[in-house]
Amino acid sequence: MDTDLINRILFPDDEEKIDDDDPRLLSYSDTPGEVRTKIRTWIESGAQTEADFQKTIGVDPTEYSSFLGYLTSPDPARDVHKKASLFFHKRELQGLPIEIPERNKIKPEASKKKKPTKSAAKGKSDSMERLLDTGDYILPGEIEGDVDIFETPREVRRKMRALLAKGVTQAAFARALSEMLPEGSGTLNPQTMKAFLAHKGVMDGNTSKAFYCGYVFFEKQRLRDNKPMSKHRETMEELHPTGVDTTHNPKTTRYIVSSATRSLGYDQYGVMHSSRS
C-alpha cells in the first residue's frame, strides 16, 4: 500500500463532515485513560507525529503533555481530553481507521523478526479470506452485470477504505472485486480502484467499474451476514427506485440552469438540487 493511498484512507477528501454538536456524538463518553490509549495507538502506528496531531485537534503542546502524564484529566488539560475524544469519535462515525494497519509500519528491526508459525499464518489467511468472502448470494441482474445500485460513490468509497484499513491489499481486493463482474467481461485492476478512491464528490466516480463492483461486493456481504438495510440505504431506495445514475458523469455532463445566480449540486443521497449561488 503506497503513501498516497494511506493518506487517502486516513484523511479522505470526501469524508462526511461532522460538527462538534452533532447529536450522534452525545452517546460517546470515553474516559481519560481510553482517550490516551487511542492517542498512543494513533501516534505509534505512524498516522501522525505528536506535533501534527496537536495541530489537527487544536491544542496547546504543554496541555497535551500534561494530559498524557496524568491518570485523570487535570483542569488545564480537559480541553485536550474533549478535543481528542471528538477527533476519534468522528472518525468512528465516518468509518475511518484510528491507526495505520500493522503491515504498513516500517521498522529497522523488521528483518530480524522471526517468521510466523504455520498456525499463525493460517489464521491470518483465514481472516483475510473472510474479509473478502461474499457468500453464495446472486443479486438480481448480477449475471448480466446490471445490478441496480442504491448507494452513492462516496458511501462505497468509505466502505472500501474501511476494508483496506484492516490490512487487505489493493491487489487482493481488486481480484475480489473482479469476481463481481459477469464472466468474460474483463477484470478490475488496482489502478482503476485507486482512481475511484481519489474522487471527492458525492456522485463523482459513478461511472467507474470500481463503483459497480464495490457496491455488489458489499451488498453480497450484507446479505451473507443477514444484516438489515441501514436508514441511509432505505432512503436511497426511496429516492432512487431504479438505482442511481451510473451512465452520466457529473463532471462532464452539462445541464441548463434557468438563472445565472443558481448552481447545481448533489445532497448526501445523490439527488441533484438547484441552489442560489
UniProtKB/TrEMBL annotation:
<protein>
    <recommendedName>
        <fullName>DUF7726 domain-containing protein</fullName>
    </recommendedName>
</protein>
<feature type="domain" description="DUF7726">
    <location>
        <begin position="148"/>
        <end position="225"/>
    </location>
</feature>
<dbReference type="Pfam" id="PF24852">
    <property type="entry name" value="DUF7726"/>
</dbReference>
<feature type="region of interest" description="Disordered">
    <location>
        <begin position="99"/>
        <end position="127"/>
    </location>
</feature>
<feature type="compositionally biased region" description="Basic and acidic residues">
    <location>
        <begin position="100"/>
        <end position="111"/>
    </location>
</feature>
<feature type="domain" description="DUF7726">
    <location>
        <begin position="29"/>
        <end position="96"/>
    </location>
</feature>
<dbReference type="InterPro" id="IPR056143">
    <property type="entry name" value="DUF7726"/>
</dbReference>
